[in-house]
Amino acid sequence: MEGQVRLRPPRNRVDPRAVRYWMTTEAISNVVGALVLGVLALLIEPARFWLLLALGVALLIGIPYMIVMPLWRYRVHRWEVTEDAVYTRTGWLWQEWRIAPMSRIQTVDTARGPLEQAFRLSSVTVTTASAAGPLKIRGLDHVVAEDLVERLTEVTQANRGDAT
Amino acid sequence: MTVASVARSRARTEEGWRQLHPRTVWVTALTVAGVLAGVAVPIIIGIADDVPIWLSVVVALGGIAVASGLAALVDLMRWRYTTYRVTDERVELRYAWVLHKTRSVPRERVRTVDLTANPLQRVFGLAKVAIGTGQQAGEHSHVTLDPVDKAVAEELRRVLLRRAPAAEVEAPAGPEIATLDWRWIRYAPISVTTPLLGAAAFGAVIQVSEWFKLQGEVFETVRGLFGGLSILGLVAVLAVAAVIVGVIGSLGLFVEMWYRYRLAREDGNLVMTRGLLTTRTLSLERRRLRGVEVIEPLGVRLAGAARVDVIVTGLTQKTDDNKTDPKTILPAAPYETARRVAADVLGSPAATATPVTRHPRAALWRRVRWALYSVLTLVAVLAALGWLLTDVLLHLAWISAVVLTPVALFLAAESYRNLGHGLAERHLLTRYGVGARRTAALERTGVIGWTITSSPFQRKAGLVTLHATTSANKGAYPVYDVDANEGLHFADEAIPGLLRPFLESQD
Known about the structure:
The complex is a heterodimer of chains A (164) and B (507). Helices cover 48% and strands 27% of the residues of chain A. Chain A has 4 helices and 8 strands, in the order E-E-H-H-E-E-E-E-H-E-E-H. The mean pLDDT of chain A is 89. Helices cover 46% and strands 26% of the residues of chain B.
């Protein structure tokens, strides 16, 4: 391939419910943070002004973040599995593309936190022999995730050797 | 003894179970005695005013005898119930008393056999054997025989690392890659350890003089010697003394570590022997080798030298009794020597002869911006505090602005100059680092994936950072701030076919 090239986006988006899931996570941390600061402001009179100021600043940043980040993230997060490789794109401002050849995959796992379960979402973790971290696909519908794990497990079992 | 247990113990010897060397008990007893004596002497001297010497000596000797006797007994039990054997398929270590433990490693998985012997073990003709599989995780990845007879240890190393007997036997005492050249010792003092050793020496003098209640006298003596000097002069004298001690220390350390250094190929594997008091023999199986790294720390680089580390799978046990990183296979030596050794180890002269491509100017501007922002942040914080609290900080702010800006800019330029990447016939090359410049030559077939990252600023400047992932060492080797298009072509060419399906033309 000659000339100017770029990485094309992976084929599949994550499940649209992931947006609501990310928003909920952010909303929870906003509420918890606001509650802590609010209660402290109520109890500690001398520092009330500063605590309320901190609360205001936190919400001023936290609320737009809660709305913008998930929407942006949804546009970035994509994944694809071909015959030969797993390909993911993650992040939002800082973005990361990862490629792992099928022949080097060691384990495939799914994980579902309580909140993810409420949204019927799963994340799939694909590990290789590298110590630099696995590939993670977050926010998949759990039926899709199960099919994906099954397919990857089949392929990796067919591979011989220790994939190093 | 019942019939069954007799039968079992006979079966045990018949199956080839062997014991560790019994002299380990002596080694343990003497080690404990030595350590305790070292602790006891300063205490005895310290309390000499209050307690008669003969009494404290008797008490100390008694205590040492009891403690080392106990340690010997524990070690005797360990020895008594520990057995190992090497079968055609496996290496097994068994401990069978109260708690039964068996550890077993398939022979075909054995990737390292390392021998170490501390001075005491050497006196008794023993060595510790660590047999590893090169797997990163899990305690089941290695078996340690501590200790066996030295000759047995050598034999085990040879037997366990030999593959495909007869078929692939090269020269048994294979070609030598490098041996110690005493002129290399001149690079030892130009390292970070020298000032540290000097400082440690000061600490030791102060500590020991306190034990002997002589601290005041030590200070008096120093003041008496250099009484005529001002404070500044005294500081200068002490600094020079620290440097001299540091230099001597680093020379000593070099001798202890690299005495009788020899790197050779044996049955196709790399074997390195070294050490003055504690001797070490490290073997690396060829299949684990993923590349080498030529490292030039700033001082060493200015002297035109470099050291060589190997990139191998599953070499993470830095602790144990390996004080040095076992990755280093050549101490700082003239650059050309380092290059030759690296090429020899890889079996490919091209790997170190290929020039690297420099990175675009935008990478330099990024670094300059980081440098200026970090200085600016520090100055701003100091200035704000100074404005609120005291004028001293304001002065500190402008002084740091004047002093730190050139330093930061120098580091930025240095970091940019050290960036580079390239492709040799079988290896991909990447160079990076501030202070220590690292040039990694990574086997292209050993790359098990790519990670490509970009920040908003990188996207604006048309740069990306690539990481070639591998199962060796820290897991990924970076190519920082390469031109996006150039970087993708590089990654695509380095490992054909992997990236291609995910690339598209940009027009």
